[in-house]
Amino acid sequence: xxxxxxxxxxxxxxxxxxxxxxxxxxxxxxxxxxxxxxxxxxxxxxxxxxxxxxxxxxxxxxxxxxxxxxxxxxxxxxxxxxxxxxxxxxxxxxxxxxxxxxxxxxxxxxxxxxxxxxxxxxxxxxxxxxxxxxxxxxxxxxxxxxxxxxxxxxxxxxxxxxxxxxxxxxxxxxxxxxxxxxxxxxxxxxxxxxxxxxxxxxxxxxxxxxxxxxxxxxxxxxxxxxxxxxxxxxxxxxxxxxxxxxxxxxxxxxxxxxxxxxxxxxxxxxxxxxxxxxxxxxxxxxxxxxxxxxxxxxxxxxxxxxxxxxxxxxxxxxxxxxxxxxxxxxxxxxxxxxxxxxxxxxxxxxxxxxxxxxxxxxxxxxxxxxxxxxxxxxxxxxxxxxxxxxxxxxxxxxxxxxxxxxxxxxxxxxxxxxxxxxxxxxxxxxxxxxxxxxxxxxxxxxxxxxxxxxxxxxxxxxxxxxxxxxxxxxxxxxxxxxxxxxxxxxxxxxx
Length: 495
Hints:
There is one protein chain. Helix 3 crosses helix 6 (279-305). The chain contains seven helices and 22 strands. The two termini are 56 Å apart. The strands form five sheets. Strands 2-10-14-12-11-15 form a six-stranded antiparallel beta barrel. Strands 3-9-8-5 form a four-stranded antiparallel beta sheet, with no helix packed on it. It is an alpha+beta fold. Helices cover 46% and strands 29% of the residues. The protein is flat, with a radius of gyration of 54 Å.
């Protein structure tokens, strides 16, 4: 009895020590982070599921009439978004190479390759003393050219005055002569027409007399005789014809005077043309003066443009610098290159499988250095090219709509293009949809047996697929079918 009590005491002490040790280990144990805890939970659940399935299988073999337990999940209603995920390189859509507009020594270079600049920042400054000297020389050249040209023009102005007068008067005289000749012609046509009308009327009267000559004593015959006499007198003494003829004499005199004055103006024109500069000489003087004026003014304008230095036209990154402080540069020498960080895209290459899903204007999410930006599919090339693996790919640009100062050109960016989206649709996990010769189907439990349910699918995301026909919200679909399980066998759904 005493030995038994002693053993119980030993066991109680051992149990107490074991409890204290467990509490101490629990106290010293570090907390497991959420991600690790979630991973452990998944492993445990998977092990439990395997054990359950194995035990169910053993039970089925042990009892042939017992149904097999199969895991199911309900069809849900929600949103399915189909995306094309890829990656590419951030590139600038806008770039500018800056060239020297003047032949002036570089005073200071304020940037280096890789520098980020803002619009309006001074990139390069010219030597101030040389700028002032070049400006003075250009202004003197402009004044010299203007003086030479004015002197030539003044010597020619006297002859040009006579020539201009003659040209103006000749133009007026030519018009007056043409108008007078036309008016004279009109008068002559009126006179001829009037005479013709009177003669025609006389002829008609003669015909009428012949019709009445067998009645010489009739009033009609006597009246026709009088009318014939009156018509004969009108043909020789018509007052309207006489007025036109008098007017014709006046206009013929005017025409003669105009022609005489035109002869004088022609003589004056010939004299002026002989004394003025030839057209070739005048064109040469004008061209020479214009050339010098343009060159001088361009130089003055160019010097004014760079007086405060060469400034950035937009926010960007300097990608090349050729200018050297203290060095003289020639016109059109390249100084530096700036690429925009305001107008940027990601250059990606898509396969033929993704090409049919994307189109211009689709929304996208662009991730650069861990930061997300809004994007939109822009240009899609119309010609494929080969990648390093020899596969045909198509170049595509995804515009970044909200770039900021964190954008880095040339780095890799991740792209998720939203190619389609359906809301309030029935959806199931992608993994539960199967395909056979007759099309797509899922496994369901109907009346206690495993059955195939034909479905029509729509778009799919990485995890879920739209079911447009064949399933309703809440219906359970089998998520895993073990080897040896066949349609029609007895099963029991396990949510």
